Amino acid sequence: MSEKRIATVISKAEDFQKECSSCFEKGFNLALLLDYDGTLAPIASNPSKTQMPVELEETLRKLAKHPKTFVAVISGRALKDVKAHVNIEGVTFAGNHGLEIEYPDGSRHDYELPADIKQNYMDMVQELKQRVERDGAWVEDKHVSLTYHYRDTPVELKPELKQLAMEICQRHGFRANLAHEAIEAKPPVDWHKGEAALYILKDKFGKYFSQEAFIIFAGDDTTDEDAMRALQGLGRSFRISADEHLETFADYRLPQQTLMTDLFKWIANGYLD
Questions:
Q1: Could you tell me the fold of the domain covering 8-17+27-111+191-271?
Q2: With helix as H, strand as E and coil as C, how does 75-101 read?
Q3: 3-state DSSP percent of the chain in helix, strand and coil, to 5
Q4: Which of 109, 122, 218, 233 shows a CA-CA span of 20 to 30 A to 248?
Q5: pLDDT score of 19
Q6: Sequence spans of domains, the chain
Q7: Burial (CB count <10 Å: 0-12, 13-18, 19+), residue 144
Q8: Cβ atoms of 218 and 16 closer than 8 Å
């Protein structure tokens, strides 16, 4: 049974070799499943301003081209949005926490929400916009899930707006999770980043995917813990967080996002021809 724990910390590039030398062997299939915001790209003041560091992007692009490497990006963003920000060929994309999945050939898998949940979603969006979209806070409507951003709200107003937004989301039956200066509202269905990760891996490698590929997952937020829990014991996962006391389903903790570039470089140096 999966459980949270204090993960091993990797704080510098050399630690990847020291701690993860047995992660994979050259020539074996490698599956990289990655969050976007806070993982591939540093958190920005506005989601539209995020950008992957140049060296990270170049290395990830090379890895995505390797015949033995499979790359999927699983994000809370809408599918079209995360595709535009990553823009790397050969990548499988999952948006809205995995509710919408698109493969490199253009085929899709969309989780169909019941009609009552769709109606509740529209009502929730309308109420949030009317009551708490103010003082710098705004609602990012992703059609099946949403993010309420309050990063630019005056400090003294944040607690009240955050609490009210949480109550509105929950009253409409949605699951509200705290993120980085934001609230993620997800529909009350048994589908999340963990289910999406398992679905994508089974679709690519079959039922016994963990015997066909070594799996690496990386994420920085509470919603990524669903994938870390689902994949615990099946590969290696990395949680990006500066919190020394954080309990996580991940195997390793990276104190800062910049270490993702070092992770990719370490993988590339040991894996690419």
A1: Rossmann fold (3.40.50)
A2: CCCCHHHHHHHHCCCCCEEEEHHHCEE
A3: 40, 25, 40
A4: 109
A5: 85
A6: 8-17+27-111+191-271, 115-186
A7: buried
A8: no
Is 226 in the active site? no
Question: If DSSP codes are grouped into helix, strand and coil, which group holds residue 73?
Answer: strand
**32, 216 Cβ separation under 8 angstroms:** yes
- Round to whole Å and give the CA distance between 195 and 191: 6
pLDDT at 273 over 70: no
- Catalytic residue (choose from 35, 221, 226, 251): 35
- Scanning the chain, the segments in alpha helix (DSSP H) are 14-20, 54-65, 79-86, 115-131, 158-171, 193-205, 209-212, 225-231, 259-271
151-205: per-residue pLDDT in tens? Answer: 999 999 999 999 999 999 999 999 999 988 999 999 999 999 999 999 999 999 9
Q: What is the pLDDT of residues 214-238, one digit of tens each?
A: 999 999 999 999 999 999 999 999 9
CATH class of segment(s) 115-186: alpha beta
The partner residues of 33 in beta bridges, in order of sequence, read: 72, 217
The Cα 63–Cα 90 span in angstroms is 10
Backbone CA torsion sign across 52, 193, 88, 83: negative
